[in-house]
Design a protein that fits this description.
With 319 residues, this protein is an all-alpha fold. Helix content is 69%, strand content 0%.
């Protein structure tokens, strides 16, 4: 069990005690890397299999749509060679506009870089979501984004981490598990289920808000998918809730606030899952010679205290 020092902050990553401990930790890293590579390979195969056929169909649909547009614009007696040339030219123009993110190809995108647009990009940057439908194209804007990110991302995740720790300590206080002398595993499972419930609830609520509050054209699945890629900070860029239309300023700003606040329960849930997995794997780690990981409950309590700056009175928390 990890020791809690007099300041109340346990050793999250215990110091290396021997060469065997060092080799064991290197082995754990290698195993995790191998598992990640295998998982990524599996994902690549599945994504490719699921999406390839649809991509080919959409490619042909796009090609036929442009060819038909050119035929409609040209006289009926035009030669096939001219039709092919005009089709290639129009295709090149459309692709160039899309590659450059030209605002003309987006609906209601005449004034995306208003203050609201800047706030939208700032939030999607510091949360690392990166919606991608609006982004800096000038060198000055890109240079500012680099500097802004170096400060904004740690600040944002410091806030999210503190809020997640506050949720954990609040849940402990609400359930009063320790005073009821329940086991540590019961405490961790309960907090894990509570955080999972919060994640599911916020996904559903945000999905309903996106569909009925911002964009009624979205299906419920599209709104749920958008909520998921937002809260997991995936942000593929195929969806966004602001394209330069400043008619719903209040709704957009409210949505940005929701995005920031709702990252905390997900961060708490992921953190707890990782801790539970590490706790379950502790016998295997011990056989590999790795120092036993810190106890998850003690770690969570002490980390909460670190966030809150309560380094003095620890007896009440540890008794």
């Amino acid at each position: 069990m990890a020791d809690v020092d007099k300041t109340g902050s346990e050793q999250y990553s215990p110091p290396i005690s021997s060469s065997r401990d060092l080799l064991g930790r290197v082995g754990v890293v290698c195993l995790l890397l191998l598992a990640l590579i295998c998982y990524l390979g599996l994902g690549a195969v599945c994504f490719s299999t699921l999406e390839r056929t649809t991509e080919e169909i959409r490619w042909e649909e796009g090609k036929l749509a442009i060819e038909q547009l050119v035929k409609d614009l040209l006289p009926e007696e035009s030669e096939e060679e001219i039709i092919l040339e005009r089709t290639a030219n129009l295709t090149a123009v459309i692709r160039r506009l899309a590659d450059n993110g030209n605002p003309y190809i987006y609906e209601k995108r005449e004034n995306a870089w208003s203050y609201l647009g800047g706030l939208y990009v700032a939030v999607s940057t510091v949360t690392t979501i990166g919606y991608g439908n609006i982004y800096p194209v000038t060198m000055g804007g890109q240079m500012f984004l680099v500097v802004f990110s170096l400060i904004g991302i740690p600040l944002c995740f410091m806030f999210i981490g503190y809020l997640g720790a506050l949720l954990a300590s609040s849940a402990e206080y609400a359930f009063n598990l320790r005073r009821q002398e329940r086991s540590r595993s019961s405490f961790m499972v309960t907090i894990l289920l509570v955080s999972l419930g919060l994640v599911v609830a916020e996904l559903l609520i945000f999905s309903v808000w996106i569909k009925y509050g911002l964009d009624k054209r979205m299906s419920f699945w599209d709104s749920f998918y958008f909520a998921f890629v937002s809260f997991t900070t995936i942000g593929f860029g195929n969806h966004g809730f602001y394209n330069g239309d400043n008619g719903n300023i209040g709704k957009v700003m409210f949505t940005l606030l929701i995005v920031i606040l709702c990252l905390a329960p997900l961060a708490l849930y992921i953190n707890l899952v990782v801790r539970d997995v590490m706790t379950a794997a502790s016998p295997l780690l011990a056989r590999m010679g790795v120092t036993e990981p810190a106890d998850p409950e003690t770690e969570m309590i002490s980390k909460t205290k670190e966030f809150q700056g309560e380094y003095g009175a620890t007896d009440a928390m540890t008794e």
